[in-house]
Hints:
Oligomer: single chain
Number of domains: 2
Structural class: alpha+beta
Amino acid sequence: MPKAGSTPGAIIRSARQKKGLTGADLGRLVGTSKETIHKIEKGLTRNSSALPEIARVLELPLSAFAGQPGSTKGHDDNEARTRPLGFVTAGSGIPLYPCAERAEGMVLVNFEPIDFLKRPAPLMHVQGAYAVLVDGSAMVPALEPGDTALINPRLFPRKNMSGLFLEASEESVRGAFRRYEGQSERVWRVFQWQPQRSGTLERSEWPRVHAVVGKYSWR
């Protein structure tokens, strides 16, 4: 059991080391970057969306984070609003995140949930699954403003499949909905509909790619 008074970062670091995991290993298991893990362990990030999934992977009780930012406050009628970001289990729902259009067809994804959705069939048993309320016109008609994109962060998109490309960050991050067309060691080859064109995204700038496995249309 974690020692009383230990910080979440110290608890996580100790549990990770006991399992023989590096920061990069843990990052891959929870769907985030090693930089985010290191920031959490050092106390530089105190309200990370990754905390609940880290607790699950490291087999830590959520009570270990009681009273800390991003921790649960207990179970009551408001659990869906008070439980930490991403803390859902198979069948109980997935978090819905908002995004806002930015320049050049990019979006800013805010990883603070605005709602929790009933878990759809394609994501029924997918750990870390989530949904994004789409903004922007880059992928119309495949994804229209107001649609809800269903995201599998464990699945790499197949060729000609839509994906959400994300920069190497954790909270509010830049993203790009694009159709995946291939890759090289340096770039992702992508396609967007509006304006219709093929292009590339630097893999060093956009290291994460999560597959869009479906959508709820706003119409």
